[in-house]
Amino acid sequence: MKHHETPHPRFPLRWAAAGLLAALAGCNVIPPAQEDATRYFILSESAGGGTGRAAAPGGLRIGLRPVVVESYLDHRTMVVRAGANEIRFEDYKRWAEPLGVGVARVLRSALLASPDVAQVFVEPFPLDQDRDFDVTVRVVRCEGTATSGGRHVASLEATIEIAAQGAGAHAVTRSVFVAPDEAWDGSDFGRLAALLTKDVDALGRAVLAGIPPKG
After folding, report:
1. What is the CA radius of gyration of the chain?
2. Which of 109, 138, 160, 211 could covalently link to 68 via disulfide, CB atoms 3.0 to 4.6 Å apart?
3. Model's pTM, two decimal places?
4. Distance CA 20, CA 26 (A)
5. Closest CA to 207 of 155, 133, 140
6. Distance between CA atoms of 110 and 56, rounded to whole angstroms?
7. Do residues 161 and 195 touch, judged by C-beta distance below 8 A?
8. 70: buried, middle or exposed (CB in 10 Å: 19+, 13-18, 0-12)?
C-alpha cells in the first residue's frame, strides 16, 4: 500500500519569512532629518555707538545697573501682544541672548555715543573708579503689538531711575519712557528686532535727558 506524502509548504513559508523581515526592517527606518525652523534675533548696537572711542575728558561717569525685564519677557521666546490681556509666544522666533542683557548692551552703547559721557560702568563696578550717577532701567514692554485697528507695531516701555553718587548720594529722578509706535508687518521679526533696537537708542537719550549737567 502506497503512502502519499503531503508536500511541504516551502514557498509560502519563505514568502512569510521575507514579509516579516521586510516589516521589521521598515520599523527601523530612520526618518529624514527635518530642518530646524527656529530663527534667532539680536538687538544690534548702532554704528555710531561709543565702542572704541577715547573717554571724553571731564565727562559723566555713569554706572549702569543690570536691566530688569518683566517676568513674561524673561526668556528667549519673542512675544507678540494680541490684546490688552493676551500675549502670544513665538516658539520659532527667539532672542539669541537674554533680553535684559541685549537691552543693557545697546543702552550702554547709546550712552557712550554722547560726547557728554566719559565712561559707562556695569556691575560689578570697579572699586577704583568713582561714578557721578547710577542708572536703573526696568523694561515693562519690549514686543510686537497688534493694535485694535488691525495694525502691528513695535512697543517698548521702561521705567528709569537715576541716583547721584559720591558724597550726599540721593535719588535724582524717576520717569517712564514710552517709545513712539512704529509700524511692523506682524511677520518680519528681523524688522521687529531692528525697531526695538531703535527704541532702546531712544531710551538712552531719555536717560541722558534726565541726568543734570555736571557741576
Report:
1. 30
2. 138
3. 0.81
4. 10
5. 133
6. 15
7. no
8. middle
* Whole-number Å distance between alpha carbons of 125 and 116: 20
Q: What pLDDT is stored for residue 36 in this prediction?
A: 84
Helix or strand or coil: residue 6?
coil
CA-CA distances (angstroms) from residue 1 to 4, 5, 6? 10, 13, 16
CB 109 within 8 A of CB 172: no
Gap between the Cα atoms of 9 and 158, Å rounded: 82
The model's pLDDT over 23-82, given as tens digits with 9 standing for 90+, comes to: 555 555 677 777 889 999 999 987 655 555 566 678 999 999 999 999 999 999 999 999
Q: How many CA atoms lie within 13 A of 3 on its CB side?
A: 2
Q: Compare 121 and 150 and report the one with higher pLDDT.
A: 121
The span from the CA of 41 to the CA of 207, in Å, is: 25
Pairing state between β 182-184 and 152-164 = antiparallel
CA distance 155 to 143: 5
Residue with cell 502519499: 4
d(CA 165, CA 163): 6
List of domains in the chain: 39-46+59-210 (3.40.50.10610)
Q: What is the DSSP letter of 71?
A: G
Least confident of 54-58, 168-172, 200-204: 54-58
- Between CA 182 and CA 154 the distance in angstroms is 6
